[in-house]
Specification:
- By secondary structure, this protein is of the alpha/beta class.
- It has a single domain, classed as Rossmann fold (3-Layer(aba) Sandwich), CATH 3.40.50.
- 27% of the residues lie in helices and 29% in strands.
- The strands form two sheets. Strands 3, 4, 5, 6, 7, 8, 9, 10 and 11 form a nine-stranded mixed sheet that branches. Strands 1-2 form a two-stranded antiparallel ribbon.
- α5 packs parallel to α6.
- The radius of gyration is 17 Å and the shape is globular.
Length: 237
C-alpha cells in the first residue's frame, strides 16, 4: 500500500502501489468545486476517494456519496474515509453508476462531480493494467452515461462539475446540453503560459438558463517549471 499526504499531513490517502493512482486532475477539479454549506454531493467514479476527501476536509458541512465500480478501488476509498475519520460525511458505494436511481440516496443530490475516463475505447494506448484501463478509457462507462446519470440524479438547479480533455470539449458541451444541464462556466487548464489547453473544467446547472462564462485560464507551471502560485495554494490547508 502506498500513502500520500495532503494539507501538511492532515489528510492521508492510501492507494494501490502499482494499480490505478489518482492524478493532479482530480485535485484540480476538487479545487474548483464550491458547494453550499449543507449540500449533498455525488462523486461519480470516486477511485480511492481523493475528491470526496478533499471536499469533506474543505467543507465540513457537506455530505458526499462516492460511487466506484471497481471493488478494489472502492475498498481503498472506504479505508481512506475511515483513516481520516470522515465516516459521518462520506459514504462509499461499490456500484455501477448506471444502476443508480433517486431511491439510492437518503438526500436530494445538490451537486455531481466527476473525473471520468477521458478516452473512447480503441483510441490511444490502452493500459495493460485492467484497473488503470477502466479508469482512463470508456470501457465500463461513456461520457453520455455519466452526463445522463447526473441528469437523473441531480435536483433541479443542481450543479454538475467535470474535468475533461480540452480536445473533447465539443462532445462534452453537446452531451450536457442534450441532458438539460446548461453549461455555465468553463475554465481551461494549461500546462504553461504559452501552451495550448490540455483540460477543461466545466460547470453546468440542471435546467439552467443559457449564459456561459469562460473564466481566466488555470496555468500549472511557471517559467521555472514549478507550480504557479495558484496551484501551490491548492495543496495548502
Amino acid at each position: 500500500m502506498a500513502t500520500d499526504t495532503f494539507f501538511n499531513g492532515r489528510l492521508h490517502i492510501h492507494q494501490h502501489p502499482t494499480g490505478y493512482r489518482y492524478s493532479i486532475d482530480a485535485v484540480l477539479l476538487a479545487a474548483q468545486v464550491f458547494p453550499r454549506l449543507d449540500d449533498t454531493i455525488l462523486d461519480l467514479g470516486t477511485g480511492c476517494g481523493i475528491i470526496a476527501l478533499i471536499l469533506a476536509y474543505r467543507f465540513p458541512g457537506v455530505s458526499i456519496y462516492g460511487i466506484e465500480i471497481q471493488k478494489e478501488l472502492a475498498d481503498f476509498a472506504i479505508h481512506n474515509v475511515i483513516t481520516n475519520k470522515m465516516e459521518n460525511q462520506i459514504r462509499i458505494v461499490h456500484q455501477d453508476m448506471k444502476a443508480l436511481d433517486t431511491y439510492s440516496f437518503h438526500d436530494k443530490i445538490d451537486m455531481v462531480v466527476t473525473n471520468p475516463p477521458y478516452y473512447k475505447v480503441k483510441t490511444g494506448r490502452t493500459n495493460p493494467d485492467r484497473q488503470r484501463a477502466i479508469a482512463r478509457h470508456e470501457i465500463c462507462i461513456t461520457l453520455k452515461d455519466i452526463v445522463m446519470t447526473a441528469r437523473w440524479l441531480l435536483s433541479v438547479k443542481g450543479k454538475f462539475v467535470i474535468i475533461y480533455p480540452a480536445e473533447r470539449i465539443t462532445a462534452l458541451l453537446t452531451e450536457m446540453h442534450n441532458a438539460d444541464i446548461e453549461p455555465k462556466k468553463l475554465r481551461m487548464v494549461h500546462s504553461g503560459w504559452h501552451t495550448s489547453a490540455q483540460l477543461v473544467i466545466a460547470t453546468g446547472v440542471k435546467g439552467g438558463r443559457p449564459g456561459l462564462k469562460v473564466e481566466t485560464p488555470l496555468v500549472l507551471y511557471d517559467q521555472n517549471n514549478e507550480y504557479t502560485e495558484e496551484v501551490r495554494k491548492i495543496f495548502e490547508p
